[in-house]
Amino acid sequence: MDRGAAKKKRPGGRSAQVRARVQAAVIELLSDRQLEEVTIPRVAERAGVHQATIYRRWGSVAGLVDDVVAERVGELAPIPDTGTLRGDLELAAIRFAEVIAPLGGIMIRAAALSTPHADTSVSFQKRAGQLQAMLDRATARGEKTPTLTELLEGITAPLYFHQLFFGRPADSDHAKALVDRLLIYVEAAR
Amino acid sequence: MDRGAAKKKRPGGRSAQVRARVQAAVIELLSDRQLEEVTIPRVAERAGVHQATIYRRWGSVAGLVDDVVAERVGELAPIPDTGTLRGDLELAAIRFAEVIAPLGGIMIRAAALSTPHADTSVSFQKRAGQLQAMLDRATARGEKTPTLTELLEGITAPLYFHQLFFGRPADSDHAKALVDRLLIYVEAAR
DNA sequence: CTTCTAACGCGACTTTCTTCGCTTTTGGAT
DNA sequence: ATCCAAAAGCGAAGAAAGTCGCGTTAGAAG
Fold it and tell me: Residue B75 pLDDT more than 70?
């Protein structure tokens, strides 16, 4: 009767294997094909999984990509908790910039694929929630804290932009500079 | 004998009309559909043009979007010269946000659609040069002036981001707030 | 005004994507 | 060990995307 770890019905079984193989296939295809050529039948073939399985679980390429991004971002760039806002922001920014690199333009493609309203993007929602929690911790400590929007616009947006237009991630010094800029503004404006 | 304006064989004829209608259809579809749902048959239907025509001239959705972007980039808001840095920045930001609106993040989607390394386009370089000139004027007036990178990251990136993730452009108040944020930082840091 | 030809329209045809009902497998629970 | 249900496999049928050859249209040049 629910011994804690059993949140999902079958966490370590065949379904999980299928998911892993499908995700791997998506990343492979996305990294050496044009986005338009990444189709569900192709993913199915490379993953060695039946098409219908993918249609049932993910529904569309957008769903697939979103799932991949949500998975990778969560595991590769956990939200830090260093005890200070600046520390959290710097770590988060640096990790995010690093994650964006191997994933290449995948995240950007994911964003481009998703509906106008990001409200439906699983990965975006998840990320936003984590970041908000980080900010809440800072507020609870009595620090002057930016809003989530300011954080997204001051840190995330420039990092995306960098990857998108320059084809390479921002380095850690650059990431720190962005944090610095945001904090200077928050100090000055509040 | 090349009398100047006759670069293309039939600049003002039926082909041009077809192109205009197709581009309009692309923009319409792209602004209220998911990228995945923008297909050539749909574009053809909305434009009132035969499918085969589009396949022949543009080949793919990526080709279509590229063409639209190339066309519209020329219409980008001119760089203002109001006499003050703040005025220039605010006008530029507001205009840019407006231009981005009907295009509905198309430029970003175009980048996402194209091959892995979407190298920095000519239009981007041109734009960057114009903005640099604007900054140079401010410096010449003796104002504390951000770098081009700071401008791109502080203004342009958030505006893109806004459109991309929220599906709507930033309003002019928001654009002004971004300018304010950038200038506060520049004042504080210099 | 006639001719030439690039570009478009048309519709049939091929390929690929997507859905559906059914069977089989499998992980978890009793 | 046995049972149960969720999820995967399977293949066929249907829908949509993409291709092709040929006839037609309409700018542009003489």
Answer: no
